Amino acid sequence: MSRVLIIESSARQQDSVSRQLTQTFIEQWKVAHPADSITVRDLATDPVPHMDVNLLGGWMKPAEQRTEIEQASLERSNHLTDELLAADVLVMAAPMYNFTIPSTLKAWLDHVLRAGVTFKYTDTGPQGLLTGKRAYVLTARGGIHAGSTTDHQEPYLRQVMAFIGIHDVTFIHAEGMNLGGDFQEKGLNQANAQLAQVA
Ligand SMILES: Cc1cc2nc3c(=O)[nH]c(=O)nc-3n(C[C@H](O)[C@H](O)[C@H](O)COP(=O)(O)O)c2cc1C
Hints:
single chain; alpha/beta; Rossmann fold; binds flavin mononucleotide
């Protein structure tokens, strides 16, 4: 049995393409892996606070010096990190907002990229500690960006995942969602065809 962690980040609950992709992923995954557990963390309905001085204090101060709010910030970060550590498969759904990921997803990443927990510094440089995990990134984009310099999602997320030790990362992009003609249909069909190969 594997554990799957789904991260949703579209601000939209209705008509969201990235949420449609995760629903399709979940349906197909359940058929292929009925015993697996699936946890969904929705960063739109349950947002994670931005990185702030209290989170840094929670991480860095010894327990007896932490304020209550620093302790609470640390516990939130621990909870999110434990959820990620427990997952065998990570699925991140991300709309493209202003050429990159939603700030809600960035805030989540800021809570789970933890020195000594998800990566560590060694004499030869940083080393990711999350070995043996697989990730899927399901994006929805108004335009077409894959492979171009305007795509600040895939290169960034590949770097972040590699930094914490996740090297097996598959990207599925639904592109052209706000374009006219048959761009939207083609983009969705292509993404769904790739999704069908995953489970
Ligand atoms: C605030 C905002 C910013 C956006 N920025 C971009 C962008 O930079 N590039 C792009 O191709 N599409 C952009 N879009 C379009 C979305 O990526 C597209 O509508 C996508 O389907 C949104 O994901 P969702 O359907 O899961 O909500 C933007 C949409 C919004 C609402």
